[in-house]
Design brief:
Largest sheet: 5 strands, mixed
CATH architecture: 2-Layer Sandwich
Oligomer: single chain
Number of helices: 3
Helix content: 25-40%
Distance between the termini: 25 Å
CATH class: Alpha Beta
Number of strands: 5
Strand content: 15-25%
CATH topology: YaeB-like fold
Shape: globular
Order of helices and strands: EHHEEEEH
Length: about 110
């Protein structure tokens, strides 16, 4: 059965920042558009078999998993009862994203 994918309020803001960063560093609209499209595709693809992705080690007990594309991490939670995947945010893998996951979990 497919899952519904929902996004936290931070996802769009993060995608906008990533787009701007890629556009400035690669100086290519095509590259920025392609990477954002691929990130969105991975997130929407969580509707089908989200459990194939690994857990975020520190948050395994809270069932937080992560989809990974290039250097970007998209942590998410699965509500099995409602069949909903909640995408928490999109981060560069080198960022300290764990505090943002904690903030999401506290607000939940």
């Amino acid at each position: 059965m497919d899952y519904q994918v929902r996004f936290s309020s931070k996802v769009k803001e993060s995608l906008d920042h990533i787009y701007t960063f890629i556009l400035e560093s690669a100086q290519s609209i095509e590259v920025a558009d392609r990477i954002i499209t691929e990130l969105e595709s991975v997130m929407l693809g969580l509707s089908n078999m989200p459990t194939i992705w690994p857990y975020v080690h520190e948050f395994r007990d809270q069932d937080v998993r992560k989809a990974i594309l290039y250097d970007f991490i998209m942590p998410f939670k699965i509500d099995e009862d409602e069949k909903i995947v909640y995408v928490i945010d999109v981060f560069h893998g080198r960022s300290d994203y764990r505090w943002r996951i904690k903030k999401f979990l506290v607000a939940e």
